[in-house]
Amino acid sequence: MTTTDGDLLPQVERVRQGDPEAARSLVAALQPQVLRIVRSHLPVRAAEEDLVQDIFVKLFTRLDQYQARGGVPFEHWVSRLAVRTCLDALRAERRRPELRWSDLPEEQSAWLDFMLVDQAAPPDTAPASARELLEKLLAQLSPDDRLVISLLDLEEKSVKEIAQLTGWSTTLVKVRAFRARRKLRKLAETFKANNPHERL
Fold it and tell me: How confident is the model at residue 200 (pLDDT cuts 50, 70, 90)?
């Protein structure tokens, strides 16, 4: 059953008053939403459970900062907090793992060929292979670039939604998306050029 913002506000007020049962109920209601965000933006070396716990710790310590007025739903405030926590974790993960051609399964190599040469038809392999390859390439990007590509292209969120989640202007979202896509393509081209002997 989907919980609406109106349903959560009484629990939020009870949590502010120190009601432990309301806190447990609020965590249970928000857990699926937070978990979905974490799984979409989990850093390579981060533990899912630790990041979820970190988000809820921040949520409870900053609960007094949330104001119901201004047209900002509580669940949106939580999403923004979760996305920013994931972004902080991505930024903290400074060393990105090196991606080598030999690490790619055959079907992902085919998708890389497709991405670079603009073939008319995509490879006859599972779409999951394309996503796995994209995630490997995304891991090589900066946290901001990785986030905007994930939100825009993988989660299919609008520019306006991304601006609301990240606090960036819509213009900045568009510029970052354009630059991130260009970097992603250049990364794939460089990666392929540096591994010619491993090409299938």
Answer: very low
Nearest-angstrom CA–CA distance, 162 and 159: 5
CATH fold, domain 101-198, is Arc Repressor Mutant, subunit A (1.10.10)
Could you read off the pLDDT of 127-167 as tens digits, one per residue? 565 566 667 777 788 888 888 888 887 788 899 999 988 88
Fold for the domain defined by 5-92: Rna Polymerase Sigma Factor; Chain: A (1.10.1740)
Provide CB contacts within 8 A for 91, sequence distance 6+.
143
